[in-house]
Amino acid sequence: MFSKIIAFSALLAATNAGLYGHAISSQSIVRHDGGHYGAPLAYASVAYAPVAQYGHYDGAHYDGHDFYAHPKYDFAYSVADPHTGDHKSQHESRDGDAVHGFYSLVQPDGSVRKVEYSADDHSGFNAVVHNSAPLVHSQPAYQHYY
């Protein structure tokens, strides 16, 4: 009886097996090979008048000095997303070699951390951190296991 079930299963599998043809791509291959063109019959170059000087540059006065651009910028952004509870801001400014700025963020317990920083060549990087009191006391998270 077992051999009849195996034979019937093999026959059923063979009849349900489809004939798969060759693989077909949904993309087409387009070749952009350059064609071969014959040489021109005659070539005549266009004669241009020589240019005496380009622009206002005079090569005799160039002393090889690189100009110094004074670095100065002011940057600020803030995020206030009530859906995720993400509240943060940052401001930074630079004038020459001195950088001053601050950033603040709301921590998970509701306290606000504000960091004021400055950096220059003489004193290096200095940061002062201010933390406010927590607004929300943490509660234990109860999980139900079903």
TrEMBL record:
Pfam families named among the record's database cross-references:
Chitin_bind_4
Annotated Gene Ontology cellular component terms: extracellular matrix; extracellular space
What keywords were assigned to this record?
Cuticle, Signal
Q: Name one GO molecular function term.
A: structural constituent of cuticle
- Superkingdom: Eukaryota
Q: Which InterPro entries match?
A: CHIT_BIND_RR_consensus, Insect_cuticle, Insect_Cuticle_Struc_Prot
Q: Where is the signal peptide?
A: 1-17
The protein's matches in PANTHER family, at most eight in alphabetical order, are given as: CUTICULAR PROTEIN 62BB, ISOFORM A, STRUCTURAL CONTITUENT OF CUTICLE
Any idea what this protein is called? Answer: Cuticle protein
Which taxonomic lineage is given here?
Eukaryota, Metazoa, Ecdysozoa, Arthropoda, Hexapoda
